[in-house]
TrEMBL record:
InterPro entries: DUF7134, HATPase_C_sf, HATPase_dom, Sensor_HK_TwoCompSys, Sig_transdc_His_kin_sub3_dim/P
Main enzyme class: transferase
Pfam family, one: HisKA_3
Residue ranges of domain Histidine kinase/HSP90-like ATPase in the record: 300-387
PANTHER family on file: NITRATE/NITRITE SENSOR PROTEIN NARX-RELATED (PTHR24421), NITRATE_NITRITE SENSOR PROTEIN NARQ (PTHR24421:SF10)
EC number: 2.7.13.3
Protein name: histidine kinase
Stretches that traverse the bilayer: 12-32, 68-94, 100-118, 130-150
KW NADP (keyword) present: no
Keywords: ATP-binding, Kinase, Membrane, Nucleotide-binding, Phosphoprotein, Transferase, Transmembrane, Transmembrane helix, Two-component regulatory system
Amino acid sequence: MPPAERLVRDRHFAYDLTLCALVTLVALGYTLAVGERALGMASLVITLPLLVRRTFPAAALAVMTGGCLLALAVSSVPSAAGIISVPVLVYTLARWSGRTLARLAWAVAVVGSFLGPARWALRGPAISDITVFLVSVVACFAVVSAAHVVGRKLRESEDSASRQERSEAERVRLLESEQEQRARAATVDERNRIARELHDIVAHSLSVIVVQAEGGRALAARHPERAGEVLGTIAETGREALTETRRILGVLREGREGSAEYGPQPGLADIADLVQRTSDRFELTTFGTAPPLAPAVGLTAYRVVQESLTNVLKHAGPGARARVVLACTADAVEIEVTDDGGTASVPDGQGHGLRGMAERVSLHEGELTAGPGPVGGFVVRARIPYERQADRSDTLPLPQAVSW
């Protein structure tokens, strides 16, 4: 048994022992005053069950009932032990026992409330004083009923408090479970975001490297002195891909969340450099001036252009030409990437690139369409609504129309 429960049990036993001793002293004093030894023996039988009223309630009720019947049989005067002990036992059973046993104890006490006064008022063949009898019955009934009601009310109050505690514990458990599910969902979202970033970076960089390598091989045969430029472009693209990959994966290193180095995210202003580095057959045209934008909008626009150009390199062939149109309207950034088809097949849309672009744009409640062009090639159109930054008042000028 745990120490706390043992302490409570010992404390309750000390209370019951003290109560039993006090009632016994009162009963013996009353018995000596009236001069009936048989009533004293019956009083001991009535008071002793108080010692086990918590641990063995049914046995205590049976023994006390027998003691009260014995007192009625051997004496015609009221039993002080019964007057005190019976309400105490009725209260105890109503407070800590089951409903059935509590009601049984109350019913027995109600019967005793009639039998006791009838025995005390009985003088010879008839009741000597009907008024004393009625007053005694009402008083005894009121005492035992009050003890039962008080005990049940306290029991119900404790049960209600216990149910409330269990309900609160369940609510806390559900809240913790909900928070845990939200944390898992946030983790999954973060992993998906990182997967999209890695896909965009690696796919674009490798496509550029492959195109530059193939072009460099042909260029080295005709103009060996220019091979160094191609190799430099390949090296620069590889370094940039490694830098961005390290930056994104740094957050996944255990224990380094606070120390991961984050570089600035690319945005609208970086699209011109992206087009320039990707291929000399790609053209960029811009319209309008972008207002202050949330970084996520600029990053989404950058990734849409990046993935679209990657698809041109992968599916339209090294000789394909592409045109990027970037327009800032009153409420959105609009992007159109068109290629002439080159010598390769049109993408089938079964890869992760188009799906990733659509997911990015949908996060901003935008729209993205992709499909074959009216005269061949492939067209990607995206519309990304603005999410403006309130803490900036300057405008972000777009690069002027450039053809590479």
